[in-house]
Amino acid sequence: MFTKKDNNYFEMLIHLSHYCCETAKDLENILNNFDVNTLEEAKKHIHSIEHAADLAKHKLMRKLVKEFITPIEREDIIKLTEEIDDVTDSVEDIILRIHMFNIQSIRPDALEFAAIITRCCYALEQALKEFPHFRKSKTIHQHIVEINRLEEEGDRMYSKAVRNLYKSSNNPIEILSWTDVFHHMELACDACEHAADTIESVMMKNN
């Protein structure tokens, strides 16, 4: 479908999605093995992944500036690049808030939510792996549907988590902090869905 040179763009997009998966998996591990004494280092580690993702994004953008012909519309490459990067940023935002609010223990709902985010990121990665040959792929639609399903699961998880929070706590600082954390967990799922929607839109335009 595309030349080897064209496929470089798709490979770079897949590479960007690796950072999403890495940050999500790190977040899940941090929350499941939570230690407030090592949170500062954990935050720095996730930031280092986010910084590497930014460098990879800039590399793709520099390549795009130099080339006249692209395998799909330039605007679509830019949009998808930004949306994949937004996923990584949104995962980092979660750990930043846990650190910023000086949260001392992790609520069970947050562990479930983190697992949903990880699955969403890996489904996005799988969709991007199929993206270069989307006309022949038998699974890319399944991955997009799975991302949409997980985003809906994230919406339900957000409602459940916030309700449980308000039912179980009378501490206004705890309520404020965790409401914001859960909101940003939902945003991470939303970011995955936005990228999936763009993949689907590009597929429709190029069929």
Keywords:
207 residues; mainly alpha
Task: List the topology elements.
Blueprint lengths: L3 H29 L6 H28 L7 H27 L7 H23 L9 H29 L3 H34 L2
Can you tell me about this structure?
By secondary structure, the chain is mainly α. The chain has helices at about 5-30, 40-65, 75-100, 110-130, 140-170, 170-205. The longest helix is centred in the last third of the chain and has 34 residues, at about 170-205. It is globular and about 60 Å long. The model has no long low-confidence stretch (mean pLDDT about 95).
The level of helicity is over 70%
SSE order: HHHHHH
Count of separate DSSP helical elements: 6
Spans with pLDDT under 50 lasting ≥5 residues?
Answer: none
Task: Tell me about the largest β-sheet.
Answer: none
Shape: globular
Radius of gyration: 18 Å
- Please tally the β strands and state the result: 0
Termini gap: 11 Å
For the residues shown, what is the average pLDDT?
A: 94
What share of residues are in beta strands? under 5%
User: Which structural class fits the helix and strand makeup?
Assistant: mainly alpha
What's this model, at a glance?
The protein has six helices and no strands.
